[in-house]
Design a protein that fits this description.
Helix 2 crosses helix 3 and helix 3 packs across helix 4. A hairpin with a 2-residue loop joins strand 2 and strand 3. The chain has a three-stranded antiparallel beta sheet. The longest helix is centred in the last third of the chain and has 15 residues. The chain has six helices and three strands, in the order ααβααββαα. The chain is mainly alpha-helical. The protein is about 55% helix and about 10% strand. It starts with 13 loop residues before the first helix and ends with a helix.
């Protein structure tokens, strides 16, 4: 890391720090992490998400409400069904980077270093579990 590149960075404003802390607070729950990971490359309904994370739909719905308030997920209505997706590319990158960072704690070469095909297999592997 280049120390010179950090010299010009000013401290964050307190309100900005509060928002960042709230994002990390939302990531500090296993069900919410699973929900966000399921949404990395697609949009899903509450029932679909409940199936992916193995939790009851009402529980997943409560987590989604928190994630919406934190502006991490957004919605789209189609008829009577509401579909959830990650709010923006920054949220997607945050989730992917967190998962990739966690993969480094395990043995061997992390899947994301084995190529794009290995990374895309992860959602299919989770669905099969």
């Amino acid at each position: 890391m280049n120390a010179d590149s950090q010299e010009g960075r000013s401290p964050l404003a307190e309100d900005q720090v509060g928002l960042v802390v709230e994002v990390f607070r939302m990531l500090a729950d296993a069900t919410r992490v699973q929900v966000l990971w399921a949404l990395v490359d697609r949009e899903l309904s509450v029932n679909d998400l409940a199936g992916h994370v193995g939790k009851p739909a009402p529980s997943v719905s409560q987590h989604l409400a928190k994630l919406r308030m934190a502006r991490l997920v957004g919605t789209r209505r189609s008829g009577t069904t509401i579909y959830y997706s990650l709010e923006n590319e920054h949220v997607r990158q945050l989730v992917v980077d967190a998962v990739h960072n966690a993969e480094h704690a395990g043995p061997g070469v992390p899947p994301h270093h084995r190529g794009e095909a290995a990374v895309r297999e992860l959602p299919a592997q989770r669905a099969a579990q």
